[in-house]
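Anyone opening a protein record will find just a pair of labelled lines. The record below illustrates this layout.
***
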Amino acid sequence: MKSYSTFNAKNNNETKCNLSADIELSNSTDSSTSIQKIGHKGFGTLTAAVFITGEMGGSGILALPKAIVDSGGWIGVVLLVVFCLNACYGGICLGYCWNILEERYTEYRTTTRNPYSSIAFRAVGRWGSRLVSGCIQFTLFGAGTVYLLLSSQILQKLLKDLFPNQSFCFWFLIIALILTPAMWLGSPKDFWAVAITATVTTILACICMFSQSVLDGNHKSGRVPHRIHDFHEFFLAFGTLLFAFGGASTFPTIQNDMKDKKKFSTSLCIAFSVIMALYLPVTIGGYTVYGEHVNANVILSLSKSSLSVFAEILMGIHLVSAFLIIINPVSQEIEEILDVPHDFHWKRCLLRSAIVFLMVLIGETIPDFGKIVSLVGGSTITLLTFVLPPYFYMRLCSQKSFEWPERHIPFYIRMYLWELILVGLVGGTASTYSAILAIFGSHMTKPCFWV
């Protein structure tokens, strides 16, 4: 074991910290036993699939019907399916990357706070690690803000009769305050019940929304309005479609909490199958029933009934539950940088409360979740989901050492990976540009504090 660390230090330019970790593990008589014990504390394949489904299936589904309309209708449906398959394969590549790290470096066989950044560091070096860290912070800050904005809209609609004069900006602040104590929990394995809640409520809410859209369609007479959309609207919708599959930033964190990390690809396939089974009926229903009149938040387009109210309550529960899942990697990464203790500590509470405060500031400044969705989806989500996982996987497989098993990527797989990277870069750049124009252009949304 000691010679293995020495070899890595000489040939892979490992830091002194990593070398010390290897020596410490090699000098421990029960190191392998402790690693196995750590592994058995994690959750299983189905539980991981539940986490992925609960984290990804919320805000995306609410914004998709409008995105399908703006992207040209059935063309958008085709793009939705293609993005689902590509995002799933990108996640599988990311899971393979982590398996490679555990295979080659002993320090990654224990719990790691920043697994995605570790993959980037081993694949391309320090610059990759910093890029991934920045992208994760931006992505999950943006996604968390979107979740809070959507839940605020839903809460405002539910309580409109009791509090008619309160805007969703007010409810945004209230929800953030309520969720702050729950933010103080540790890693996803500390609140597995939240993931189950998020998944179950999403499934039930989708059933209710689809059922209500069918009822609305039966009561409509005449042709549903549709029009031709320009490139600006198309690429804004493009970013929303990408956002719907933007869970890659949390994938390594979820995988890191599994008992058998090599089964992560199975969890991904299960989760993405469930997600598509939820996405397609709601998006097609919203497109065919409401057409151009569909709201950016499709749940606000539903006719008022007990069924739609139930859907709103369920989706509100999902959003606050999923919020706790997606914001956790941000918290863990910043805690790692600032050397915050792993155990429950006042520093953790202070730091995570500050994170919520920054999200409130962003949400109150740009209270239009659709524009934030397009910006985040076209920029950092594209990088983290479609561009970086294939690139890191190819780089790790190209690295050689006589102590490592040789890895070979078939030519057709390599071509597919490069295609993912190219499409992600071109489409993501155009989508990001369109979102920036929408946010800072002539139709800029008025901030909540702009009295």
Observations:
- Residues 1-40 have pLDDT under 50 and may be disordered.
- DSSP finds 18 helices and no strands in the chain.
- The radius of gyration is 22 Å.
- The first helix runs from residue 2 to 11.
